[in-house]
Design goal:
Elements (H helix, E strand, L loop, with lengths): L1 H5 L28 H6 L9 H7 L19 H12 L1 H23 L19 H22 L4 E5 L7 H14 L5 E4 L5 H9 L3 E2 L12 H15 L6 E3 L10 E2 L13 E7 L14 H9 L6 E5 L7 H5 L1 H16 L2 E2 L4 H17 L1
Parallel strand pairs: 1-7, 2-4, 2-6, 3-4, 5-8
Antiparallel strand pairs: 6-7
Helix pairs in contact: 5-6, 6-8
Main location: membrane
Keywords: Acyltransferase, Lipid biosynthesis, Lipid metabolism, Membrane, Phospholipid biosynthesis, Phospholipid metabolism, Transferase, Transmembrane, Transmembrane helix
Pathway: Lipid metabolism
Length: about 375
């Protein structure tokens, strides 16, 4: 790892692309780099190297007014605005957000009371719950997710539907429903990953099922890709099954780049629905790339107005060649999203992101 941090010259070779997270065990799962490694190599990373780091790991570089890792020097006007928002806007938003979360938790508890979940793989699975219980959870979840976004400052959501026969949202929803009934239903929604806010938007929009990796156990032979493949195929074939929501990049970026896609979402050979998210900003970027969670939440809540732009592409139906090779399928969907969303293709991944974070911590340790 020392050599990886030292090799920052322009003549160095490009970082290798991480292997896809298909079997649940790749180098992306290695433990986060220990702080002592950053301290040991701190004398090899100086301020002039910051530009080299930003060139090499451009997908994770913050370009807003708050600087690297949100620790940049702010002008006095920004400090005044931040101080006012910290004592007025932040407490109100924190209380409102916590209230919404508690209310939805209570709704879920009441709706699942006296209901035995599917405990396959030692997990509580309520995804296939039906009747009034599911209706209440879904509708209240969509409403409260949008309410939470409103509280945070996302008062308007700019949604664009890239369909030549659709001009408005209402028409788009009608066309999508007819398309799903007459043709093949997409097995999953695939989206670029910019922030934890992505989850709130998708929940408010379509309330899909999300996939999160848990600790592997000796009795677990399916792996992550096996579970994803099974759920995507089921959502594709059964209109009553919950739609899957996947972030094939595997980690977040600054919103200007698109990382290589993992093939888990494309192994089932089912059609997918691509969605592109952008977060325009003037002062603080809502992207969660190279900034701590607490610092990000505080700055986000102190920003009066936040913006989100959503581009929904038509359902992507794979060709026979793409069905036979999920890597080609994933790469073609990725290139389409990059073209439609004006995103830059990048060949780095989670492993490089960890190296970048460690290098930044080393720089701040010198100060």
């Amino acid at each position: 790892m020392e050599s990886e941090l030292k090799d920052l010259a322009p003549k160095s070779t490009a970082p290798s692309q991480p292997e896809p997270l298909d079997d649940g065990s790749t180098k992306d799962d290695r433990p986060l780099l220990k702080p002592d490694s950053a301290t040991t190599d701190s004398n090899t990373i100086s301020k002039p190297n910051l530009e080299e780091l930003e060139k090499k790991y451009a997908a994770y570089v913050r370009n807003d007014a708050y600087g690297v890792m949100g620790r940049g020097e702010l002008p006095w006007t920004e400090k005044v605005l931040l101080g006012i928002a910290f004592v007025t806007l932040l407490p109100v938003r924190v209380v409102a957000a916590m209230t919404i979360l508690v209310v939805y938790y209570l709704i879920c508890r009441v709706c699942t009371l006296f209901l035995a979940p599917n405990r396959e793989d030692e997990q509580e699975d309520y995804a296939h719950m039906g009747g009034w219980r599911r209706a209440v959870i879904v509708q209240s979840g969509r409403f409260l997710s949008r309410a939470l976004l409103f509280v945070i400052g996302f008062y308007w959501i700019d949604e664009t539907y890239r369909n030549p026969f659709v001009d408005e949202k209402s028409d788009a929803e009608t066309v999508c429903k007819d398309q799903f009934e007459e043709g093949e239903r997409p097995g999953a929604i695939v989206s670029n990953h910019v922030s934890y806010l992505d989850i709130l938007y998708h929940t408010s929009s379509s309330f899909p099922s999300f996939v999160a990796k848990r600790e592997s156990k000796s009795s677990d032979f399916k792996g992550v890709s096996g579970v994803v493949n099974e759920r995507v195929r089921e959502a594709h074939q059964n209109k009553f099954a919950p739609m899957m929501m996947l972030f094939p990049e595997g980690t977040t970026t600054n919103g200007d780049f698109l990382l290589p896609f993992k093939t888990g979402a494309f192994l089932s050979k089912a059609p997918v629905l691509p969605v592109i998210l952008r977060y325009p900003y003037q002062r603080f970027s809502p992207a969660w790339d190279s900034i701590s969670g607490v610092r990000h939440v505080i700055f986000l809540f102190c920003q009066c107005v936040n913006h989100i732009e959503v581009t929904r592409l038509p359902v992507y139906y794979p060709s026979q060649q793409e069905k036979d090779d999920p890597k080609i399928y994933a790469d073609n969907v990725r290139r389409l999203m990059a073209c439609e969303g004006n995103l830059i293709l990048s060949d780095i991944g989670l492993a490089e992101k960890r190296v970048y974070h460690t290098a930044l911590n080393g720089l701040f340790c010198q100060q």
